[in-house]
Amino acid sequence: MQDDPLGFLIGDCSRLLRRRFDARARALGVSRAQWQVLVALSRQEGTNQAGLAEYLEVETITLCRMVDRLQEAGLVERRPDPADRRAWKLYLTEPAGPLLDQLRQLGGALVEEALNGISPSLRESLYDGLAALRNNLSARGPATLPDAPLQERA
Fold first, then answer.
1. Which of 10, 60, 103, 145 makes an SS bond possible with 53, Cβ 3.0 to 4.6 Å?
2. CATH of the domain at 14
3. How would you write the pLDDT of the chain (154 residues) with one tens digit per residue?
4. Is 154 inside a domain boundary?
5. In b/e form, how buried is each residue of 92-128, taking b as 16+ CB within 10 angstroms?
6. CA distances from 147 to 95, 144, 152 (A)
7. 13 within 8 A of 6, measured Cβ to Cβ
8. In the chain, how many domains are there?
9. The HTH marR-type domain covers which part of the protein (predicted)?
10. 0.90 cut: is pTM over it?
11. Are the C-beta atoms of residues 102 and 28 closer than 8 Å to each other?
12. 15: in domain
């Protein structure tokens, strides 16, 4: 077994990937948070702000500010929700498509850089293991507490 706990190792890799992605995305004039909104919206176009905020696990007001900036940049548009006059549905604009393509290429190149020197079979195992971790953690079961206090498990 390795010295670093798995959660710390995953967290460190995630932090480093985010930092490198942010630096590269800035050259395109987009933050990682804005990229996340654009990608989520490409998967759920026509959703409302509350639903998108829940999906991204951010406060509605935080998402509203991000959407404001994306709308000012001409990448997102708000359309009235015919079922609820108080709500807006969100859609990508035509210029968002090429930007999303650039960001996906940037992300793909960064992942390739991160996986440099890792064999194809180990890459496949890594993806399979992380997918299984995600599925296990995504399961909607009741939260359980450990049987013993932390000091007793050490």
1. 60
2. 1.10.10.10
3. 567 888 999 999 999 999 999 888 888 888 888 989 999 999 999 999 999 999 999 999 999 999 999 999 999 999 998 888 888 999 999 999 999 999 999 999 999 999 999 999 999 999 999 999 989 988 765 555 455 454 544 4
4. no
5. beeebeebbeebeebbeebeeeeeeeeeeeeeeeeee
6. 53, 9, 10
7. no
8. 1
9. 3-135
10. no
11. yes
12. yes
Q: What are phi and psi of 125, to 5 degrees?
A: -65, -40
Q: Is residue 72 part of a domain?
A: yes
DSSP assigned state of 147: S
| Residue 146 tokens, joined | 């450990």
What radius of gyration, in Å, describes the C-alpha atoms of the chain? Answer: 19
In a domain, 22, yes or no: yes
Domain that holds residue 72: 6-125
SS3 per residue for 31-56: CHHHHHHHHHHHHCCCCEHHHHHHHH
